[in-house]
Each structure stands twice: as structure tokens, then as C-alpha cells.
């Protein structure tokens, strides 16, 4: 086979294949050699320390070991009839392979796919599965982006998982991280000018400096590889605000162009979903309207407004969302900070969304996600502190909103297990640095160091693993039934998937809130006292309620922490 590597500044490059070294031939900035074998690594200059392939497809011995050749054409796919899913009208379910099941592998996760299909979700969003150092981790410290983490089941295991999802009508979203590399095994800069500066999480990529053409190609080829070779339906792009790119054509727009071309070639929808702290609708504005052309982005402002409304927490970045109009404003306008003052940042932030032209399905709505749970000191879910009634009201708001709903694994049954930050770096110095850094970070916010779970302790992973027996237990089964009903109603009633933001009316006073969705009304009481809510029309019937909520004539009677979804007479 032919081995190739980009190493522009080196005068000598060798490839070690199954223990035998072969001199490589320069071809411009690239090097190549033909050799027979399976496992290989590169030696740069006269250095005898072999390094894995930056474009490795398989790392069976971990991120420091040799790469292994992998033939994408050898896998026997059975999803030839799969035509994909468009995002509008969809429901996402975010999960982490290592803690979703007791086995913590792709194959064990397949055993739960019938449950997800029956729940009614349409997209399974998988946290990063690229190779990172150690066995357990969130996946955001990956260093070999094209190789699937071996403890999960490697590349074949991931393909079996995707194939099984497609057989059940489930599209697959993969979380990918292009804004930084992890702290262990990040050898890219030894090959060429891959790195440019640091961000909050590690070394960032050189996207606009000298030699950056090949670095950008490295990112785009990786994204296309997941979509083409692993049959992904969508990519979630982690923290794109940390991509430092001053070129006239931003990397995100360039990626959107190439993904659109691939979508036409494979004849199925391919979706790009950004996580962004910029509050800039340019990301999801069509390229014809001078945007980047991404399909969707996460909506953290709506999460923050919901979180404050449900919990009363107002520390840190939640402070601004204690404003009385925070929740109704974000429901109507997407961004709370839209060219307005952000006290957490100490400056104005964001730009308004044109609700006349930008559809709501381009923004993901959620009560919880891996970040908003796992980056709390103890990884506590809402269910640890919020009553079932308030959880139910929050879920109803998300699923009755004009946005694309997303669930974090276990949320749908109010799982009691936390989801904590964990890692398993074998290097004891790095492990101690992560442990100490995590505790100091939260100590600055008032937490005792002893209260912060040890991220390196295997018990932290075990605590974070879902306990599936809860699904049928009292309290949990009722919440699961509610989520099933909300998803089913969203599927059956076109008013609930209508993405037109300028069609949405939100009425609120004190503790109550009413969403107008065509002839449907969602009336919610988040307060501790009963309220009577006007509905602006005669009631035709109740579709769903929580607690003792009732409706008669043109008003809804809502006890504390209840909701009712009803239809008005024509």
C-alpha cells in the first residue's frame, strides 16, 4: 500500500511498517512510500521516536501507538435504502457511548436503539468518538480525529452502531471538535504548522496563517470522511467561536459548501449544527443571504432562561436571565443577548435574529445537555433539585416551542444518576494536573475542594452511567410517559413543528406563561400558587396536562407547577 504524510519542513521522513523502516520520497510538501504491512508510524528527520499518522483511521493501541491500515470499503453496510432525515420536525437525543449503557460500547448501545425509536426521537447525537488518551473520557480531548476510540469498539463497532440506527429510522449526529486538541498525544505540530496559539482548552489550529491551506484541508477532509465513510447524517461542531479564522471565506462557510456538494452526491440530507457563543445569526443564515450556510446551532440563551425560571439560580452567566422578560423574550427572539448588555462578559453581546426570515428549526432547544450538567461541580441533573412538576413544565415548553428539541440521555425519565466530568489519562502528572485544576476552578466559585468529584477516579465514571432499571420505577415512569406523549404530539400536530418565529405569541404575567401555536395553547404555571389563565378563545379539548390542571370555557385553572396543552374551537 502507499503511505503518505504532510511534513513540509522536514528533509527526511521514514515510515516504519510492521517494524521495518522505509525511506519516503518527497513530493512537494508531501512524502510517500510503498510498502506492505498493517501497522505503521512515521519517523521525522533523524528522530527514532515513531509517531502515529495525523490522518490515522485506526489506533488499536491508543494515541501513542502505531496507526493501522483500515479499508472503509470492507465493511458490509445494510443501509442502502436509507435516504436520511432532514432536521426540521426532528427530535435529537444526545448520548455518551461510554456511560449510556453498562457495557459502554457501540455494541451495547445498539441494544437500546429500539427504546430510542419507540420514544420517538429521530436523531441520535453521539458525543465525540475520536481517539483520546486513556479509556474513559468525554471525548473532547481527542488528538486523532479520524480514528474511532478503540475501547468503544473501533471503526467497525461504530459502523455497526450507525447501520443499526438507520435500520430503525434513526439518523446519527456526531459531535466533532476542531477548535483544539487534547493535552496528550497531540503530535500534529511535529509534522507541520498545524497549531496557532492556545484557547481555553488547548492548542488551536492554524486556519489563516502560513501553511494553513493544508490545515484547513485536514479539517474539511475529516468532516467529509465521517459523513461519507461512516454514513453520518449530521455533525455537531463544538465551540466554533474558538475557531480563529480571519480569512475572507471562513472555514465554516467553506465546510458548508463542501458538505452541500457531498449531500448531492450521496443523495441524502447532510446537516451541520454549530455550538456557538457568538449569538450571531450569520452562522445559520443561508449563503445566498451572505451567511455561512450552516443548518442549525445550539441555543444556550433559551437553556439559561429556562434554567433560571425552573431553579432560581442566578450565579455566573445566569445572572442576566433573572430578568422577568428573559424567558418570553428568548422564546420569541432566540437570543436574549442580541446587541444588548451582558454582565457576565462586561460588554454588549450578540445580534438579533430576523424572526421574519430565519426559521426556528435552525436553533436547538433543550433543558439539559452534557455541558450544562457535566460542567457543574458535582454534575447534578435538574432532577436532583427541581420538582417533577417543574421538570414537566420545562419539557412542555421545549417541545411546544418552534425550535428543534434535544434531550440529554436519561432526562426523559428524570434519571437520578449525575453526569460528572471524568478522564483517565495514564500519565500520572497529567492526571494530577487535571484533578487539581478541576478542584481549584470550582473552589473559586465557592465549592469546597472535597465536594468536587475526582475526575480520574473510575468511580466517577460509574456514578455517571445510566441506571436503566429506573425506567420502570415510580416517578421515573411517569416522566417517561410524559416525554413520549410530548414527542408524539409534536409529530402529530403540525402547529407544534411550525418553525415560523413570527407566528409565535407568548403571553405571560407573574408566574404563568401561555404559548400560542395556531389553535393550540400551552398554559404553564411555574409558581407556587394556583392561577387562572385566559386563553383568548373557547376550549375544544385538552390534549395533555400535568397534575390537576383543567380548562373550561376560555380559561385554564392551573395549580402550582402544572401545565395544560389544549386546543381551541375554530
UniProtKB/TrEMBL annotation:
<dbReference type="GO" id="GO:0005737">
    <property type="term" value="C:cytoplasm"/>
</dbReference>
<keyword id="KW-0119">Carbohydrate metabolism</keyword>
<protein>
    <recommendedName>
        <fullName>Malto-oligosyltrehalose trehalohydrolase</fullName>
        <ecNumber>3.2.1.141</ecNumber>
    </recommendedName>
</protein>
<comment type="similarity">
    <text>Belongs to the glycosyl hydrolase 13 family.</text>
</comment>
<comment type="pathway">
    <text>Glycan biosynthesis; trehalose biosynthesis.</text>
</comment>
<feature type="site" description="Transition state stabilizer">
    <location>
        <position position="371"/>
    </location>
</feature>
<keyword id="KW-0326">Glycosidase</keyword>
<feature type="domain" description="Glycosyl hydrolase family 13 catalytic">
    <location>
        <begin position="94"/>
        <end position="490"/>
    </location>
</feature>
<dbReference type="InterPro" id="IPR044901">
    <property type="entry name" value="Trehalose_TreZ_E-set_sf"/>
</dbReference>
<dbReference type="InterPro" id="IPR014756">
    <property type="entry name" value="Ig_E-set"/>
</dbReference>
<keyword id="KW-0378">Hydrolase</keyword>
<dbReference type="InterPro" id="IPR017853">
    <property type="entry name" value="GH"/>
</dbReference>
<dbReference type="Pfam" id="PF00128">
    <property type="entry name" value="Alpha-amylase"/>
</dbReference>
<dbReference type="InterPro" id="IPR006047">
    <property type="entry name" value="GH13_cat_dom"/>
</dbReference>
<feature type="binding site">
    <location>
        <begin position="370"/>
        <end position="375"/>
    </location>
    <ligand>
        <name>substrate</name>
    </ligand>
</feature>
<dbReference type="Pfam" id="PF11941">
    <property type="entry name" value="DUF3459"/>
</dbReference>
<feature type="active site" description="Proton donor">
    <location>
        <position position="275"/>
    </location>
</feature>
<dbReference type="InterPro" id="IPR013783">
    <property type="entry name" value="Ig-like_fold"/>
</dbReference>
<keyword id="KW-0963">Cytoplasm</keyword>
<dbReference type="InterPro" id="IPR022567">
    <property type="entry name" value="DUF3459"/>
</dbReference>
<feature type="active site" description="Nucleophile">
    <location>
        <position position="238"/>
    </location>
</feature>
<dbReference type="GO" id="GO:0033942">
    <property type="term" value="F:4-alpha-D-(1-&gt;4)-alpha-D-glucanotrehalose trehalohydrolase activity"/>
</dbReference>
<dbReference type="InterPro" id="IPR012768">
    <property type="entry name" value="Trehalose_TreZ"/>
</dbReference>
<feature type="binding site">
    <location>
        <begin position="236"/>
        <end position="241"/>
    </location>
    <ligand>
        <name>substrate</name>
    </ligand>
</feature>
<feature type="binding site">
    <location>
        <begin position="300"/>
        <end position="304"/>
    </location>
    <ligand>
        <name>substrate</name>
    </ligand>
</feature>
<dbReference type="GO" id="GO:0005992">
    <property type="term" value="P:trehalose biosynthetic process"/>
</dbReference>
Amino acid at each position: 500500500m502507499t503511505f503518505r504524510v504532510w511534513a513540509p519542513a522536514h528533509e527526511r521522513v521514514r515510515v516504519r511498517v510492521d517494524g521495518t523502516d522505509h525511506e519516503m520520497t518527497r513530493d512537494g510538501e508531501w512524502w510517500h512510500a510503498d510498502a506492505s504491512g498493517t501497522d505503521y508510524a512515521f519517523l521525522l528527520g533523524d528522530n527514532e521516536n515513531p509517531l502515529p499518522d495525523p490522518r490515522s483511521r485506526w489506533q488499536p493501541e491508543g494515541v501513542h501507538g502505531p496507526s493501522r491500515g483500515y479499508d472503509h470499503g470492507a465493511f458490509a453496510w445494510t443501509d442502502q435504502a436509507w435516504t436520511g432525515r432532514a432536521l426540521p420536525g426532528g427530535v435529537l437525543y444526545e448520548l455518551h457511548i461510554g456511560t449510556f449503557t453498562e457495557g459502554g460500547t457501540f455494541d451495547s448501545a445498539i441494544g437500546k436503539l429500539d427504546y430510542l425509536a419507540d420514544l420517538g426521537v429521530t436523531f441520535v447525537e453521539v458525543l465525540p468518538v475520536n481517539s483520546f488518551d486513556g479509556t474513559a473520557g468525554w471525548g473532547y480531548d481527542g488528538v486523532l480525529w479520524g480514528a474511532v476510540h478503540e475501547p468503544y469498539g473501533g471503526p467497525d463497532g461504530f459502523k455497526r452502531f450507525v447501520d443499526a440506527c438507520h435500520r430503525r429510522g434513526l439518523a446519527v449526529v456526531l459531535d466533532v471538535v476542531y477548535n483544539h486538541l487534547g493535552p496528550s498525544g497531540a503530535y500534529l505540530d511535529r509534522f507541520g504548522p498545524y497549531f496557532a496559539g492556545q484557547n481555553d482548552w488547548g492548542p488551536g489550529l492554524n486556519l489563516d496563517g502560513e501553511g494553513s491551506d493544508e490545515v484547513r484541508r485536514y479539517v474539511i477532509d475529516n468532516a467529509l470522511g465521517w459523513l461519507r465513510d461512516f454514513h453520518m447524517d449530521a455533525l455537531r461542531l463544538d465551540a466554533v467561536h474558538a475557531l480563529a479564522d480571519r480569512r475572507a471565506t471562513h472555514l465554516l462557510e467553506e465546510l458548508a459548501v463542501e458538505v452541500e456538494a457531498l449531500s448531492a452526491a450521496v443523495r441524502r440530507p447532510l446537516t451541520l449544527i454549530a455550538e456557538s457563543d457568538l449569538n450571531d445569526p450569520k452562522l445559520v443564515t443561508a449563503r445566498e443571504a451572505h451567511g455561512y450556510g450552516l443548518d442549525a446551532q445550539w441555543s444556550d440563551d433559551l437553556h439559561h432562561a429556562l434554567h433560571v425560571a425552573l431553579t432560581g439560580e442566578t450565579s455566573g452567566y445566569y445572572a442576566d436571565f433573572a430578568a422577568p422578560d428573559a424567558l418570553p423574550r428568548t422564546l420569541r427572539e432566540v437570543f436574549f443577548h442580541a446587541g444588548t448588555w451582558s454582565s457576565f462578559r462586561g460588554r454588549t453581546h450578540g445580534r438579533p435574529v430576523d424572526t421574519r426570515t430565519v426559521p426556528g428549526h435552525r436553533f436547538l432547544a433543550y433543558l439539559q445537555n452534557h455541558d450544562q450538567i457535566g460542567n457543574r461541580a458535582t454534575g447534578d441533573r435538574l432532577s436532583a433539585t427541581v420538582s417533577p412538576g417543574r421538570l414537566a413544565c420545562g419539557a412542555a415548553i421545549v417541545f411546544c416551542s418552534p425550535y428543534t428539541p434535544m434531550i440529554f440521555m436519561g432526562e426523559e425519565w428524570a434519571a437520578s444518576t449525575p453526569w460528572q466530568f471524568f478522564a483517565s489519562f495514564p500519565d500520572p502528572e497529567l492526571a494530577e494536573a487535571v484533578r487539581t485544576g478541576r478542584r481549584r476552578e470550582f473552589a473559586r466559585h465557592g465549592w469546597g475542594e472535597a465536594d468536587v468529584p475526582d475526575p480520574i477516579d473510575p468511580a466517577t465514571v460509574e456514578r455517571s452511567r445510566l441506571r436503566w432499571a429506573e425506567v420502570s420505577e415510580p416517578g421515573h415512569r411517569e416522566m417517561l410517559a410524559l416525554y413520549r406523549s410530548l414527542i408524539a404530539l409534536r409529530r402529530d400536530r403540525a402547529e407544534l413543528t411550525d418553525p415560523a418565529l413570527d407566528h409565535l405569541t407568548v403571553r405571560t404575567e407573574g408566574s404563568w406563561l401561555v404559548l400560542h401555536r395556531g389553535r393550540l395553547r400551552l398554559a404553564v404555571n411555574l409558581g407556587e400558587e394556583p392561577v387562572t389563565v385566559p386563553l383568548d378563545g373557547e376550549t375544544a379539548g385538552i390534549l395533555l396536562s400535568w397534575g390537576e390542571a383543567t380548562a373550561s370555557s376560555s380559561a385554564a385553572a392551573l395549580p402550582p407547577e402544572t401545565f395544560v396543552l389544549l386546543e381551541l374551537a375554530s
